[in-house]
Amino acid sequence: MIARRTLIGASIAALAAPIVLTAQERGARAATPATLSVNLANTTSSDTVYAYVLGLDPAQGNTWAFLQADGRTLYHPPSPSAPGAALGADCAIALPPAGAAPRTISLPRLASGRIYFSIGGKLVFLVNPGPGIAMPSVSNPSDPNINTAYSFCEFTYDQSQLYANISFVDFVSVPISFALQTSQGTQTVQGLPAGGLDSVCAALRAQAAADGGDWAKLIVQDSAGRNLRVLSPNLAIGSNGSLFAGYLEPYLDQVWQKYQNTDLVIDTQYTWGTVSGRVSNGVLTFPGVGSFTKPSTAAVFNCSSAPFTTGNDEMGNLSARLAAALNRTTLLADANQPDGENPAAFYTAPRTNHYARILHATTSDHLGYAFPYDDVHPAGVDFEGKVQSATPTLFTITVGAAAQGSGNPPPPGGGSAYGTLQAEAYTSQSGTRTEACGDAGGGRDVGWISNGDWLGYAGIDFGAAGATQFRARVASGAASGVSGLVEVRLDSPTAPPVGSFALANTGGWQSWTTVPAAISRVTGVHTVYLTFSSGQGADYANINWFTFAAN
Asked: Where is the signal peptide (predicted)?
């Protein structure tokens, strides 16, 4: 059984589980249309948003091609005589103003493609001899796009199917979400919610304060001190090799010690079947296949340097599964990999890939490709954010948080502390997600809440008289013996609490009750944080709404 707090989605992994299509899809694999309608929607706060669509054109020998500004005409950059040549055509596809109807473009068949979205200005793509394309870089300080807010998603559209995924492997910045309509129904990937980047940054700073790691150094701010993007640890280490030095080594030492006397069993999910290995003389050896020396922290985060550089397909398969287990820190608890029956067990070691943990906790559906082998999974249990179909009919990509009703709540824009504050109208959060609410009035509630999670609400006005009471509409289906605190804090999720109440099972996750609590007198305007602490790791709280009172 999958735990209630789980990561669900779909992915495609090299040499992993085979792609399973319905009979209808198998019959349609060679019948995808020559072009696919793609809606590009803008829900950011900016009226200046551009998209760039590029990939390898199979009709022209897999040479690079861009869609031009009209959103339908392909442009093939010629090979220049020297590196760094201008692109030579206007390929900035202007999106409509924020909140307006989407712009529809016509996507031709392209492989290894990307769709970039930039906020507030255009991106610069340069052409090298070949031709090759110099993509925008977030790790090169001299890159012309370094101060621009942008993100990208990845896709391949060929004669057999459309595949697209949201990638955080390099960095996270502007939210992107998917809705793919197919003949079998609609697939969605919700991406970051409103305020998601700020939530990620706050959680990284909290993690750095907790364990002394370099997590806060992944945050990049603009000249005004606003969060611009967060670099992945593997990308950041590539620019500064001193980051995270020795961070995972104590865990890696424990893993290598354990498997001196225990078999590590890896299911290749391919024709090689299951293979077993042990550590001897410091080397993890799979007899008849190959061996791995103990990796460094940097190697675990990048998944591509020694010992994960391998010379044959079977070793490449083992590399992916070993690297995934080390990033998720599941090897001390489970000698059978890939471990995916209980994704709540991922990232539970004190020192783990907290970048991946925080991203999976922050995205509204817990999906997102957070490290290079995040597509490793058992059959039927997926983690990275992708859509895939042999029968696509309309692909909608939203830049900015997805519209209300899709699972991503809009920010409340402040408000009175004495009104009803809907829990799903947070401006920042960590570790939670929303769901349909069965309480009176319907709507959505916030659930999947466990120890260490929090919700933030900016601009809450308590006035001059001040509030001394707090009431919250809560529910819990927690197991016997599982309980925790709901605490109110001001202006930081780590500030001292001004009040709290305890919560245990109320009869079910949709069995609602209103709980009052006294708080220290609060005046003025604050960001209100609801924080959740428990001695157990399981979920214990759902929250529908809350409010404050003077008496």
From this structure: 1-16
